[in-house]
Specification:
Layout: H1 3-6, H2 16-36, E1 42-44, H3 51-66, E2 73-79, E3 96-99, E4 102-104, E5 107-109, E6 118-120, E7 134-140, E8 149-155, E9 164-171, H4 180-184, E10 188-190
Parallel strand pairs: 1-3, 8-10
Antiparallel strand pairs: 2-7, 3-7, 4-10, 5-6, 8-9
Length: 194
């Protein structure tokens, strides 16, 4: 991407041709969204120009509905067992369904039946596996469950650092699993795997 475009664009490490194709897909999502003037049932959050504002809005709506102070809230993420957006025809009771995440430094074992999936070791030659649809809700910070969970940083690109968005709760194989394993592996969620 030309340097003089970078100051106006979103973070990306894509080559110009790939970046332009990505912009067109983002615009198509916004056009589709604006035709009906309502939020899609499942939002491709990676296609938003400012994804953190959408997540903050989830916390604000929950705070107003429950009378809780916004400063006491955090996001809670649950990875569902499907990547198919067509399976979701109704909005979530609370929070929102979002997709568009890829893992780096780990793999994802899908759940069976009512069980949820969990982090696994990377599969060879699968550098950025796609993560199933995620249900994001807002809860009190004191209610956040950390046992058996890896608090995973979410970044826009593989550049990490300044592209940080939020921290997602990813279930580990068991409650006795050590989150340091995933920290040492550099495990993170990315919105754009390049």
């Amino acid at each position: 991407m030309p340097a003089n475009w970078e100051k106006y664009a979103y973070f990306s490490k894509k080559l110009l041709v790939e970046w332009f194709a990505d912009v067109l897909i983002r615009i198509a999502q916004l056009n589709e969204w604006s035709e009906e003037l309502k939020t899609p049932v499942t939002v491709w959050i990676s296609g938003l120009f400012n994804p953190m504002s959408y997540l903050t809005a989830i916390m604000q709506v929950t705070a107003r509905a429950t009378g809780m102070p916004l400063d006491d809230m955090c996001l809670k993420t649950d990875i569902l067992n499907t990547k198919n957006k067509a399976e979701f025809v109704e909005f979530a009771q609370t929070g929102a369904y979002i997709n568009g995440f890829f893992l780096e430094g780990a793999g994802w074992e899908a759940g069976r039946g009512g069980e949820t999936g969990y982090l696994t070791d990377m599969i060879l030659k699968e550098l950025h596996p796609e993560v199933p649809i995620m249900h994001v809700t807002a809860i009190r910070k004191s209610e956040r469950v950390t046992k058996g969970m890896y608090i995973c940083p979410v970044y826009t690109t593989t550049m990490r650092g300044p592209t940080y968005i939020f921290s997602a709760d990813l279930k580990m194989e068991s409650e006795d699993s050590d989150p340091n394993k995933w920290i040492l592996a550099g495990c993170a969620l990315l919105m754009s795997p390049e």
